[in-house]
Amino acid sequence: MALKRFMDNYLSNYENPNEIEIARLTDDSFSVNGFWPHEEGEPNVELVLTTACGDYADFIEEFDITDDVQKSLDKITFEKLMSLYQAGKGAISCSIEGANAPSLEFYMRNKTVIAKDDVDTFHEVGIVLNTPDDFVGYTRRYFELNKHLKGFATVKNILLQFPAQADN
To answer: Which of 25, 44, 97, 110 lies at a 20 to 30 A Cα distance from 56?
Structure first.
C-alpha cells in the first residue's frame, strides 16, 4: 500500500507545506493536527485542531488519499480540519500556559459546542465560539472559575478520545 510505504519512509510523521502534521500511531490509527494561528501577543497559548482516524481506510476516505500520497497529504489544510471539527469529526484543544498546562478540548455535537477538561468532565459551552480569541477567552474564564483544576498536571494524549458522535 502506497500510504503505508510513504509513512514508513517518514518514520510515521509527516508535516505538509501547510504546516499540518500527519501522524500514524503504533496501532495504525492516524492523528492529523494543525496549529490555529492566533495573536502574536499570546506566546503561552496553544490552539490545535485535531482529527483522529481509526485506521488506514478511515484516513484514506476522510482525506481523499490517492496513490499520489504526497500530493494528497499536501492538500490537507487548516480549513479542512476546521470543516471536520464543525462536522463533529474533530476537536480543538486550547492550552494557555504550555504543553502540560490545564487545557480544554472542544467538540461540536449537533451544532452545540461541548468542552472537556483535564479531569474528563464534559459540559455544554452554551455560547458560540468562532475565533481563536473566543476559545482562549472561554478557556481562561473556565479555569479562573475552576481554579482547583489547575493542580492537575497531565501529559496530553497524542490521540484524543472523541465523545460518542451523534448525528450532526
So the answer is: 110
Long-range contacts of 14-21 (CB under 8 A, 24+ apart): 14/73, 16/73, 16/74, 16/76, 17/74, 18/74, 18/76, 18/77, 18/78, 19/78, 20/76, 20/77, 20/78, 20/81
Q: What is the pTM of this model?
A: 0.82
Could you state, in order of their start, the residue ranges of all structural domains in the chain? 2-151
3 state DSSP class of 46: strand
- pLDDT means per 10 residues in the chain (168 residues)? 93 96 96 84 82 96 96 97 96 80 90 91 93 91 76 41 46
Residues 73, 75, 80, 81: is their CA dihedral positive or negative? positive
Between strands 46-53 and 91-95, the pairing is: antiparallel
Q: Which amino acid is at 146?
A: N
3-class DSSP state of 84: helix
